[in-house]
Model the fold of this input.
Amino acid sequence: MAPRGYHVARGLRPWGRVQTGDQLVARPRFVDEIATLVHASRAGGLTSLCTGLGRSYGDSALNQGQTVIDMSRLDRVLAFDAVNGVLRAEAGLGLSDVITRIVPHGWFLPTTPGTRFVTLGGAVANDVHGKNHGRAGTFGASVRRIGLWRSDRGEVEISPDLTPELFCATVGGLGLTGAILWVEIQLARIGSSRLDVETIPFGNLDQFLQIALESEAGHEHTVAWVDCSSRGPGFGRGVFTRANWRDDGPLTVHTDRRRLTLPVDLPGFALNGLSLAALNALIHARQTTRPRREICHYAQAFYPLDAIGAWNRLYGPRGFFQFQCVTPLGAGMQPVADLLAAISAVGQGSFLVVLKTFGERASPGLLSFPRRGVTLAIDVANRGERTLALLSRLDRIVMAAGGRLYPAKDGRMPPAMFRAGYPELPRFIGQIDPAFSSSFWRRMCHD
Amino acid sequence: MTEPKPSERVCILGAGSAMAEHTARLLAARGARLALVARNSTRLRSIAADLSARGAGAVVERCVDFADLNDPDALLDSVSLALGGLDAVLIFYGDLGDQTVAESDTAEAARLLNVNFLSAATLSLAAAARLEASDFPRPVLLCIGSVAGDRGRASNFIYGAAKGGLAVLYQGLQHRFALKRLAVRAVVIKAGFVDTPMTAAFAKGGPLWARPEAVARTIVAAMEKGGPVIYAPWFWRWIMLIIRLLPQSLMNRLNL
Ligand SMILES: Cc1cc2nc3c(=O)[nH]c(=O)nc-3n(C[C@H](O)[C@H](O)[C@H](O)COP(=O)(O)OP(=O)(O)OC[C@H]3O[C@@H](n4cnc5c(N)ncnc54)[C@H](O)[C@@H]3O)c2cc1C
Done:
């Protein structure tokens, strides 16, 4: 029988839809319910994990066979200072709702991931990054205070100056240091809801790096897309996008109504190598004939994928892996070239290959993913053993370059790779709340 | 969303419920002045903070246990004073209870009948008198009923009896308002299965379960027109029509 307050949820899947399993889920509406829920779970010999909107790809937001506290109904704004741009809200509030409430006052998120369907708690727990990493650093860099509930201490207010150790463990802490109840962030001023966006084609990876580094000073937002299907002279070509906020109004918000949603899994063959190559070439032809400047609303510039709900079902019922790594700048573009070569060699293609540089700002979290270097993210359809073998090859390239993988996107990295990539792990372990765990954590540390 | 109505003054009784909170959010977004009445003061504080941030013209909090409400007039007077009048009174609180416990324990049955009927009915009568005096174009008295009130069924007839009684009271109030040629309306929202903490123990999912956000939109629309009985979601009207028409001999063989 489920502990009081929980119900059995069968066959839950994360965003990548590869892993599945049963969990006991509770959906509280008030912060005072958290303590009762965690104690009930503990009394049944189970660990807890808080989750947000489930936008992590692998098993870091799963607690298979144990209890999960879905925080998404804790979605209240507790205080908003529209003059100084300080927002305090419950951890389950989605970034989409934050944005619609702050943009009319001339504020925006300090930084945002590529989807707005992420909660504040999730943004903190993965210390997410955006296209403006060079300027803003990670999400955690703008967090002023966090209300954290711990099974051993009750509710504590943590901040970089008052509780530095617990703060840097909780930011990027994968939900393991307790339940994040609320978050207070410093917002960023905007003078318009639109951006000037410039798109520049590049012919190879060295050109990418050159443009990326050149753009750091004058452009807040940078990202690139790489054509992963072309070999030979076209190898490593792509388009670089850089953008700055405009400063001439209007301040209009997006809407989450009228989104297209894929209701079912498409058959897996919808994304075979051939259609991917055609698609990549098509996008290439349309975008890269010459540099282009346009004015885009933030929804278009930051969240193109959010226009389609449940696009993750494009990859069919077996789901897909995302592989996101960062390699140190000192290693240059060779690791990325090796990764792309390994991917195109198996002809498995991939829908999205995103490339970007991380700036100088050190990440606040002990387990934060971003560090100075080049980050590459690819989606790979799950074809079983073949795919896992490919990903292992990619792992070796990243490890050899002294890089690491992003746990938010991972569902299969070997524990040794995690340990090698995150040297602060022992310090982090000292801050874990004994009542909390996750499928990812057990896979990394208790195998 | 309708145009801003800064003068709209709404009292929400049972403001801690999911349906109430989502209704209040829609009202706050159009600048309504809200009085929130609920049992738990810390919870009320977080709801009130959010509604203020969403644009409510004013938010007044009152802590009350409806199971133990001995002076509904005093409560409404204090709220009316704080808001500068009353244009709408919405009653959300209710307790599903446990039918099997209530069948063997008359004190529990009395508690359920009290909170779901007696308390709600006396508050409604007190509110009706005040709303009749309102000069707002469309004053409204609204409560959450239940499809359980449409026909007595073995699984939940004590809760159902209270909600059924409340619906009759609202039909009567609506009739009285109409005979007096008043603009004020009485509306009972007969909710089907709503995915809220009150129903957390049930297996969810399937087409019959509605989200509280969706029911809130129906409620806000019902504050403008329709009634006195509105089903939410709408298809329950037809489901309950069939259930009401089932001959008792057939009903006796169904485990509903
Ligand atoms: C289309 C898409 C684009 C993306 N782009 C980016 C990007 O550009 N940059 C980037 O960094 N990430 C990106 N991501 C990943 C995403 O931002 C992170 O996985 C994010 O953490 C998801 O937040 P969530 O609210 O869905 O939380 P979940 O995925 O449900 O949970 C994430 C983690 O947070 C923890 N957690 C959640 N809430 C709480 C809480 N209240 N208390 C304690 N722990 C909690 C969970 O335990 C888990 O470890 C993207 C994801 C998608 C689907």
In short: Residues 77-190 of chain A form a domain with the Uridine Diphospho-n-acetylenolpyruvylglucosamine Reductase; domain 3 fold (CATH 3.30.465.10).
